[in-house]
Amino acid sequence: MQIWVDADACPSVIKDILYRAAERKQLLLTLVANQLLRTPPSKYIKSLKVGAGFDVADNEIVRLCQAGDLVITADIPLAAEVIAKGGFVLTPRGERLTQDNIGERLNLRDFMDTLRSSGTQTGGPPPLHQRDRMAFANALDKILASLPP
């Protein structure tokens, strides 16, 4: 398993959790973004800068990830493509997206997009709280614990 991070929108506290997990489990962790990212010195952690543009980082993650890889993202269309390739998806809030719930999430996302395009103010996501960080860390540990030693 390799871990891919949709890093442009991933909170720093979540990246810190991922850095520690990559070192502990000795897994490759790649942060994909359209800007240069600083990562801790490690043979397991790297960043990949892609060109600017709509969905460029998402498309690169889909291209590079393989079945069994883990992708960290809140982007629902990206999550759907990763799941279709046989990958695992975890949001920065610790929600596991699967074949069973991705269709519902895509429908909700499309509905909210329709509302926004009609001028309705829907607001953004709530701030990340300590409970979200704990939920993420616990969900990540659960996924990583299922890996062979």
TrEMBL record:
Signal peptide: none annotated. It comes from the Bacteria. CDD domains: PIN_YqxD-like. Belongs to the UPF0178 family. This is UPF0178 protein SAMN02927930_01657.
